[in-house]
Amino acid sequence: MEIKNGIPVSPGVAIAPAYVLDSESFRIPKRFIRKDEVEVELKRFAVAREQAVAEIRDIRDSVHSVAKDEVGLIFDAHLRMLEDPMITREIPEKIKQKRYTPEYAVSRVFKKIIKPIKEIGDSYFGQRVNDFYDIQRRLLRNLLGQQAQNISKFARRVIIVAHDLTPSQTATLDKKMVAGFVTDVGGPTSHTAILANALGIPAVVGLGTISADVSGGDVVIVDGKSGRVLINPDDATRAKYEAKHESYQEREKRLADAAARAERHTRDGVNVNLYANIELDDEIEHAVRLGADGVGLFRTEFIYSKFGAHPTEEQHLEVYRRAHAALGGRVLTLRTMDFGADKYAAEVGLEKEDNPFLGCRSIRLSLREPAMLVTQARAILRCATLGPTRMMLPMIGSIEEFRAARQIIEGVKEDLKREGVPHRADVPLGMMVEVPSAAICIDAFLGESDFFSIGTNDLVQYTLAVDRNNQYVAGLFKHTNPAVLRLLQSVIGACSRAGKPVSVCGEMAAEAHFAVLLLGFGLRDFSVGPTSLPELRTLVSRVTLTEAEAFAARVMQLGHADEITRLLEAEVERLLPSAEFG
Ligand code: PEP
Ligand code: MG
User: Fold this and answer.
1) Residue 15 maps to which CATH number?
2) I want to staple 197 with a disulfide (CB 3.0 to 4.6 A). Which of 69, 119, 481, 529 is the partner?
3) Mean pLDDT over residues 149-175, rounded?
4) What is the pTM of this model?
5) Cβ(458) to ligand 1 under 6 A?
């Protein structure tokens, strides 16, 4: 048994065999297959090779047609290489005899081919090396592409083990069959982590080398609360974690029961709204069942992976229409697209940037290429005829940006009116407060934005200069840093005094131990992943506003993040004692 520790990002315990996902841009680790898998894996390699041959023929033929014989000859050479016995015989042999995965067999054989050529160090042979790399990449891409298709249908429950999971991979996972997932990289509020939470799947990220340490079929235990991952546990350990899994399920059930009985206000009668954050459209019904008062943040990026980089107005509308139907008259807050950095950057063909989190992401992209925003805004204004709708702009850093976006949206309203298309022009336009410049100058926005939602995931990352995706600095990503808390207190206070609705929709709002503090700051609207709703509902109904305000005052006297964390944890224990909830 091997034990690894990573960053826990989605609670719960899962025990299942591993399904390891390799990635093309990452070293392929040594991994083995079982005897009964040999035939299937040989077939997978054969298909990948045939696909490579067909792709190269296509390229060669299109090149020939523009009379580039010399270039065509290069691809003829590639085709000959794919016929070489090293590839047609040695790779299948390694799969059969050594039981290597096809990916690993390909990488071993190509290493053997390339090494001596490289050692010659001549420029002609240097070119040959690149040809071999090219073919290797093609074969791996085809193998991994088959793998990508496979993750949407598993025959048994598995734990996904990967170097990283892209949001679109996570979105297409066969949710019923994925018991948990673990990755080498990732931080506490990375998009993959948020999706794991949304799907209610236990997950641990930032494990370093887990994708190389585990082979397909190894039994893996994921403890999404402690961040512990156990590989091939002994029977006693397995039994202990099975019991832990049971008690986690029990706790969830008890919280759901308590939430169903709980009042929808604090103990002294102050109304508190709990909205849901939605990552994928099929979550809304679940959120409503768990008592959501509406959707406080609908991350619309998945629409672009579902329909391609340029969904039409009708495709947007179809998703929003379904959301309204599931919400039955509750509010739907649609955030305009927030691509870039870790969100669907590759899928929509964004250029690679040196510092993507500081680059052309989100609203900056919408303002640079307004066509996407225009299409989306048309659908949002149109869907508002179906139910209460709000439009929210992400990543606003200056009043100029807010005004520029609003001007585009005003233009959209004029177009819809001129075209006679039914819509609502009075859709409230709000903004995320997630860039420190907007939080510091919140007063500049109060007269212009209809509502505000604080995105603590980005606000913490930008305030503390800590990449939210990077496991090496995850220990510095602290919501309890006094600088973050002061910003939150000031934004919530300013919005409340101005009578403007304000919510917190970052992951912080979903953590029970921040709820009392945020209430004490004056927050009345929380927006959280659906699975956190029962715990939060129960907790809010057990505290009074007077207690919350006194508690916030005590917390703000402390100057040290860890001291603050201890105080917050003690308060949760008082309100949701382990003796009652386990
Ligand atoms: C945030 O930054 O806190 C937020 C809610 O937006 P996202 O996580 O989608 O960047
Ligand atoms: Mg954000």
Assistant:
1) 3.50.30.10
2) 529
3) 77
4) 0.80
5) yes
